[in-house]
Amino acid sequence: MANKEDFKLHRKVVEQIPEYIPGKSIADVKKEYKLSDVIKLASNENILGAPKNVRQAIIDSLDNLHIYPDPASTTLREKLAQKLDVEVGNLIVGSGSDEIITMISHAFLHRNEEVIMPWPSFIRYLHNALIMEAETKFVNLRKDFKYDVDAILSAINYKTKFIYITSPNNPTGRIMTHDEIMLIIKNLPDGVVLIVDEAYREFVEDDEFPDMINIVKTHPDKNIILLRTFSKIYGLAGLRVGYAISRKPIINMLFRVKAPFNVNIVSQAAAYAALDDPDHVEKTRALMRKEKKYIYKRLLDNNINFVPSETNFILLDTGMDGEEVFNRLQESGIIVRDMRMYKLDTYIRITIGNREQNKKLLDNLFKILNQKTKENY
Ligand SMILES: Cc1ncc(COP(=O)(O)O)c(C=O)c1O
Fold first, then answer.
1. Which residue puts its alpha carbon closest to atom 2 of ligand 1?
2. Do 73 and 213 fall within a single domain?
3. Fewest C-beta in 10 Å: which of 12, 50, 72, 245?
4. Do 334 and 239 share a structural domain?
5. What InterPro entries does the record tag this protein with (predicted)?
6. Could you tell me the distance, in angstroms and rounded to a whole number, from the CA of residue 302 to the centre of ligand 1?
7. Residue 1: inside a domain
8. What is the number of the ligand 1 atom nearest to the C-alpha of 230?
């Protein structure tokens, strides 16, 4: 058998795709550290789980497992259209918004065209650009992790095809304001697609957050695609449902590249049911508001710098090696996310949990940081 170095079957570009290193699962950490109690605050999932009515909707859908799902997710799109006040033709549903990023890349991105993306931001934009043999231009966020709109506009040239804006951004939790996005749209060249990823939009409290659907409606001459998901506030990450909103010619092209039966019957039924429970969204928002206050206060009391967040996660600067903090938290049964991938070496990202989980996380974090301070004396 040929060794790894001799293996030449693949496209060269595949080697450039950074290996995705998923965090350890609760089961892995329990086994490795012989712990009975492990909490995961790493992937920005909804700590309250899925809405209650989703369970029954899933059970009901089980009668139809032998039938292919509706390829266009029509019933779900009709419900979304009603809720969002758009037409069904303005919507497409994907297996997570992640799949829609791939569809958009397949449908519109030519080889050697340029993709502008903020840095740090969601790494999947880069992966998809690489697969399409397009170039990626990273535009650094400012020191306070806010968007640098001038730098984004300066990055546009004749090769630009996509501009990704993640608002709120992952891993920072910060938004792009209405005025900032309008400045980009005003200067958006005809052949450029603006992709606004709003995976965490339902958590936002800031009044300056734009009403992107209204902006899309009132700018029919601009190529804007909004990405949304059921993975975060709706608590359905495990079922993989996301959607895009855009003008009809764009949605029609996405349908052409879409895998025929991309969203399974169970997931379509669950997402439909989740829309019937607005209380779950409100309850989650209220919990996040309360817990953010608690976490901020404790971080401030302990002189830990953090990025104010409009999401269900917080990026914080531990002031020491973030990987070490990550490992030591894991040893104590708490899984968070280190930020090595973004070269934010002293940072970790924590998902906001319930009070008990947040307290456990912060107690352990401060213990680790205090020990380190003593070691350094
Ligand atoms: C900014 C952002 N966009 C998109 C996604 C993908 O979400 P989905 O589960 O809908 O594929 C994530 C997931 O973490 C995300 O953080």
1. 199
2. yes
3. 12
4. no
5. Aminotransferase_I/II_large, HisP_aminotrans, HistidinolP_aminotransfase, PyrdxlP-dep_Trfase, PyrdxlP-dep_Trfase_major, PyrdxlP-dep_Trfase_small
6. 31
7. no
8. 10
Q: Which of 101, 122, 202, 233 has most ligand 1 atoms within 8 Å of CB, for mutation?
A: 122
Distance in angstroms (rounded) separating the CA atoms of residues 170 and 44: 10
Does 199 sit in the ligand 1 pocket, CB within 6 Å? yes
Question: Could you tell me which of 230, 302, 321 has the C-alpha nearest to residue 270?
Answer: 230
Ligand 1 lined by 166 (C-beta under 6 Å): yes
**Ligand 1 pocket test target in 123, 201, 232 with most atoms within 8 Å of CB:** 232
How far apart are alpha carbons 51 and 66 in whole angstroms? 26
Do 266 and 299 lie in one domain? The reply is: no
Does the N-terminal peptide bond of residue 22 adopt cis geometry, omega within 30 degrees of 0?
A: no
Q: Are 72 and 88 in contact (CB under 8 A)?
A: no
Is 96 near ligand 1, meaning CB less than 6 Å away?
yes
* Domain shared by 240 and 367, yes or no: no
The CATH number linked to 17 is 3.90.1150.10
Question: Would 79 be classed as within a structural domain?
Answer: yes
pLDDT per residue, tens digit, the chain (377 aa), is: 556 667 889 999 999 998 877 778 999 999 999 999 999 999 999 999 999 999 999 999 999 999 999 999 999 999 999 999 999 999 999 999 999 999 999 999 999 999 999 999 999 999 999 999 999 999 999 999 999 999 999 999 999 999 999 999 999 999 999 999 999 999 999 999 999 999 999 999 999 999 999 999 999 999 999 999 999 999 999 999 999 999 999 999 999 999 999 999 999 999 999 999 989 999 999 999 999 999 999 999 999 999 999 999 999 999 999 999 999 999 999 999 999 999 999 999 999 999 999 999 999 999 999 987 777 66
